[in-house]
Amino acid sequence: MTTTAEHVTATTEDEAAVEAFVERFVTDLAGAASTVMTVIGDRLGLYEAMTGAGPLTADDLAAKTGLHPRLMTEWLAAQTVSEYVVYDPAAQTYTLPDAHAAALSQVDSPAYLVAVAEVITGQFLMLDRLETAFQTDGAVPYDTFPDSMFDAVQRFFRTAYTQELAANWFPAAPGLVPKLERGARVADVGCGQGFATLLIGRTWPASTVTGFDVHEPSIASARAAAIEAGSPENVTFRVADAAHIGPGPYDVVVYFDSLHDMGDPPAALRRAYDLLADGGIVVAVEPWSIDRLEDGIGNLSLRIDYSGSTSLCTPGSLAQAGGYGLGTLGGPSKRIDLLTQAGFREAALVADTGSNLVLAARK
């Protein structure tokens, strides 16, 4: 029989545990609510308008952007309590610190992450379809995603491409950079809107690059981006499923944050193997993750990415032929196994940047 003292102690411990979790939960809710304000600030150019402008009143910012002054006051209050902007109560002015602008408005900054807020907004827009997917076949076709999702993903990955691709990712793959410098035939599979494809073509002009994606609107955007970039002769784009790219042969096949999105990654890798010339190199850049789930408990990056994997990437994969559902995360071992099973040799994790895993193998 439980004594009164023991009962009181247990109840006190339970209450403390509840209070601790509620504090954690409210913190998460505050972050989700703040994301709405971040997207407004991004979409309407408010962060851009505040960058380098020094202290501004709400009326100053409203006049500068042509937006509603009363809503501007509320938005700035939300930004103040979230500590995104610095408020001077005496002057009633608001300042966006340069350090914050690096993440929110400076496109070429290595800290530029504001597009993630738009990706999270896309997850909320897909809630009804995701609910149905849980109750049925698990599938949410990519062509049902809002256009803002694809634009946000491109903006988000742009930072990694510009900062990491030529400086860290490709040099980590043995023999890859010399091959590109001499002139290689490159296939960028799952190229999306083509930013990385164009970057490779611009960085290594002796090479030719073909970007492939099954999503026709993304290929249309990629072709438009190529025209804007001066229509480089060494870059082309084609609509194709990853398991049916071609005709080849290629010297290099790359997947930038796309392998896990595919309906049949094993078939995609087998096709890459078949199209690669002897000694050809395959590179897969995937979101950072670890093999053991328990080692990632509480990790902020994994919290964001597992949410994205559940709501976007995995149901998107399940909606395609093959329905493999690799998932965004799960660690490097699964990816290395897929490369090995497709016939590649020397499959290895060649770089771990803390944000991405870079895997490479050779035919």
List keywords for this structure.
alpha/beta; Arc Repressor Mutant, subunit A; seven-stranded mixed beta sheet; globular; Rossmann fold; 363 residues; 14 helices; two-stranded antiparallel ribbon; 9 strands
Structural notes for this entry:
The protein is built from 14 helices and 9 strands. The protein has a 7-stranded mixed β-sheet, sandwiched between helices. A two-stranded antiparallel ribbon has the order 1-2. With 363 residues, it is an alpha/beta fold. It has 2 domains: 4-104, Winged helix-like DNA-binding domain superfamily/Winged helix DNA-binding domain (Arc Repressor Mutant, subunit A, Orthogonal Bundle); 115-160 and 176-362, Vaccinia Virus protein VP39 (Rossmann fold), CATH 3.40.50. 39% of the residues are buried. The mean pLDDT is 95. Helix 12 (265-275) links the parallel strand 6 (250-256) and strand 7.
